[in-house]
Amino acid sequence: MQLQLATWEDVGAYLARSTGVIIPIGSTEQHGPNGLIGTDALCPEVIARGIVDATGALVAPTISVGMAQHHMAFTGSMTLRPTTLIAVIRDTVDSLARHGFDRFMFLNGHGGNIATIRAAFSEIHAEISLARAGNAPSLHLVLKNWWDTPKVKALSKELFGDKEGDHATCSEVSVTQFAYLDAIKPAAFQGTAPRNTGFGDAADYRRRYPDGRIGSDPSLARPEHGRRLVEAAVTDISDDWRALLAET
Ligand code: NI
Q1: What angle do CA 60, 245, 232 make, to 5 degrees?
Q2: Nearest to 49, CA basis, from 58, 40, 38, 41
Q3: How far is the CA of 38 from the centre of ligand 1 (A)?
Q4: Which of 1, 10, 12, 93 is the most buried (most CB within 10 A)?
């Protein structure tokens, strides 16, 4: 069930059988010459819908703008400061916890969000641990990176080998091609981009990775590959979802 397509009574009925919710979280940032700016938000959103179909989970609206300061030298990119994203995650969890949700899976599409999501989880846990009454219910907070599951990693290695790269990857571009066939862009570039040597601010990133890609050759992306990657992610993460619901 999608929260945005439910009524408040639907959500009440759902809460009677489950207190878990999936929150896709991504980014709005350049993804190289043929990748969509929404890639990191679109991928977890599509996968979350697959998990809904497989498990009956509830999925909240996607947090579509993330921590992407290093992409700001490319037009169209947007970022939240780490402190802003922490506040967004805290308020999102607090809103849903007020209704009785206590299991939260953040299904993430952007490596640059990881540190900030973990910091937000620490803030939320600290708030509960430091509460004077000391009897606030615990919240189960899980971060799941869609590209980092056994089946997805194996398939991406099989399909793309060392051309997968670290940003504007063949896998993520394939997933958006599968989900948004009409938005496929021509791959008018050649070869693999510079290897990952790290980065600091936005200008530094642009100097090191002139067309936005890191180590990838997303001309290899195909909708059919995307379909298989989504299927692999849905299978693995549905198992993680069931495990989260079973936690005591
Ligand atoms: Ni990405």
Answers
A1: 70
A2: 58
A3: 9
A4: 93
Residue 20 predicted with pLDDT over 80: yes
pLDDT at residue 1 above 80?
Answer: yes
Question: In angstroms, what is the span from residue 147 Cα to ligand 1's centroid?
Answer: 10
Query: 44 CA to middle of ligand 1, Å?
Result: 10
Residue 137 has a pLDDT of 85
Structure tokens at 241: 């979802």
pLDDT computed for residue 64 by the predictor:
98
As beta bridge partners, residue 20 has 103
Q: How far is the CA of 51 from the centre of ligand 1 (A)?
A: 20
pLDDT of residue 221: 98
Burial (CB < 10 A; 0-12, 13-18, 19+), residue 108, is buried
Distance 247 CA to ligand 1 centre (A): 30
Span from the CA of 137 to the centroid of ligand 1 (angstroms) = 35
Supply the CATH classification number for the domain 3-246.
3.40.50.10310
* Distance (Å) from CA 172 to ligand 1 centroid: 6
Tokens of 48: 């979350």
How does residue 133 score in pLDDT terms, banded at 50, 70 and 90?
A: confident
C-alpha radius of gyration, the chain, whole number:
18
- DSSP secondary-structure letter at 181? G
The answer to whether 45 and 4 are in contact (CB under 8 A) is: no
What whole-number distance in Å separates Cα of residue 248 and Cα of residue 242? 12
Q: What would the two tokens of residue 100 be? A: 């009785």
Q: Outline where the chain has alpha helix (H).
A: 8-15, 39-55, 82-98, 114-129, 150-160, 170-179, 202-208, 223-246
63: closest CA among 41, 90, 96? Answer: 41
